[in-house]
Design goal:
single chain; mainly alpha; Rna Polymerase Sigma Factor, Chain: A; Arc Repressor Mutant, subunit A; 2 domains
Length: 203
């Protein structure tokens, strides 16, 4: 094993291989390098959640437990992205009753309570609130997709992976990946249109 000071000089692939051999120091360095990537994904999925630190800890535990089964170190980033997605939707299922009800209109007297998540000064409070609610609506719709479609669309649209990278991490053919993403988009469009129509009717 390398000396402590040399871990920072190892490549990602070398750190992954050492981590697969249960080298905790290599894993700590690997986690440090991917901290920003993991944080950005968790921030996207669960921006409103107050326990992101706990989610991150749970994620690292899952990565540590599963890394020995990763066949291709090159697919590590995509593999971690998939674990983030699975963790979020596992937690979402547990917290279903805590998710705010979708509302596309807020009384003026409540506008000051709306958290401003997007630093877009061209949008007013109501527009920001509607964007936030639409984001929740989209994540809910994604959560209802069959697993293979959900995985494909999340890895492509949220994790920004290419078709080739998704094929590698899911061990699927390129044609299958493209088909799943296309199908997922169609299912999401139908689901979101239905939800928005119900909201408009109830308004």
């Amino acid at each position: 094993m390398p000396s402590q000071q040399n871990y920072s000089q190892l490549s990602d692939k070398e750190l992954i291989v050492y981590s697969q051999s249960r080298d905790s120091r290599a894993f700590r360095e690997l986690a440090r390098r991917y901290e920003g990537y993991i944080g950005s994904l968790l921030g996207y999925y669960a921006a409103d959640w107050k326990d992101l630190a706990d989610l991150k800890q749970e994620l690292l535990i899952r990565v540590w437990r599963g890394i020995s089964g990763l066949r291709d170190p090159v697919a590590f980033k995509a593999w971690v992205g998939q674990i983030v997605s699975n963790l979020f939707y596992d937690e979402l299922a547990k917290r279903a009753r805590q998710i705010p009800t979708i509302q596309l209109h807020v009384p003026d007297e409540q506008q000051h309570d709306i958290p401003h998540e997007i630093q877009d000064h061209s949008a007013g409070p109501e527009e920001l609130y509607q964007y936030r609610q639409l984001r929740i609506l989209i994540l809910r719709a994604i959560a209802k997709l069959p697993n293979q479609y959900r995985t494909a669309i999340v890895l492509h649209e949220i994790n920004a992976l290419s078709y080739v990278e998704i094929a590698a991490v899911t061990r699927s053919s390129l044609g299958t990946v493209k088909s799943r993403i296309s199908r997922a988009r169609a299912m999401l469009q139908k689901s979101l249109a239905s939800c928005l129509n119900r909201t408009a009717t109830a308004a």
